[in-house]
């Protein structure tokens, strides 16, 4: 029931994934935790050489050790996506290690749930735009020489860029989520437009529902909501390696998108009401 409600289509067949990625190089950003870590482990189990990028080198080394412990190959690339020099340095290491990339899983991301009217909204917005938009875009462009060159895989030649996005990038703006929703939607559209210009590169947007990872831990209301595990999310994220999909989403997402088109006013009023209730409860607490 939980899986039927939450789960987008997925690649549960490790043999199919093996046919697509074994012996090939795939970069996973945000591989030190959550969805990225689980995706890296799955790609490693399928025989890919997994390039692991994130800031925490010690965590990346643990993930690499797990991959290598099961006979796989992993390369650790510590980098901070919010720092352009660090992104350029990481891209140089990727190109030197793997001149041909079969895939990039653009997964690293940050979220913040905070009222835009409180604190330092510019800081939230700018921080999230750097990690969720400009850093990953800079990295992809720097990897141009390695993308589109891969040959002989089960789905045909070329490379796939998998953008790990969120269902929230597709529905109406929710109070306190503006910086996150805006940044996720911005990168998704940028990626779709960029790959359309790019010979030999196809893009896939994966709109994940809630996933039980460190990212959602600070949001108390999420603790009781149904969520995918990181391992289940990794099965969803790896689907574009075995099927030519451009969009992967839970079955109910189109309904939410249509509601945003058909009755945006009702939704906006409902969300504004929920925000007023939450703010009142916070003032009382
Ligand atoms: N969890 C959910 O419910 C959910 C739902 C929909 C979509 N998503 C998306 O799924 C992706 C993964 O999220 P998650 O839930 O797995 O979160 P997570 O466990 O917090 O992992 C986030 C990853 O991003 C990396 N990262 C953060 N800032 C970075 C930076 N400046 N430079 C390089 N790497 C950075 C982190 O590594 P370091 O800290 O080591 O740098 C970590 O590996 C995100 O794009 C998120 O938007 C999550």
UniProtKB/TrEMBL annotation:
GO terms for molecular function: oxidoreductase activity. It comes from the Bacteria. InterPro entries: NAD(P)-bd_dom_sf (IPR036291), SDR_fam (IPR002347). SUPFAM superfamilies: NAD(P)-binding Rossmann-fold domains. GO terms for cellular component: membrane. The keyword Protein biosynthesis does not apply. Belongs to the short-chain dehydrogenases/reductases (SDR) family. This is Epimerase.
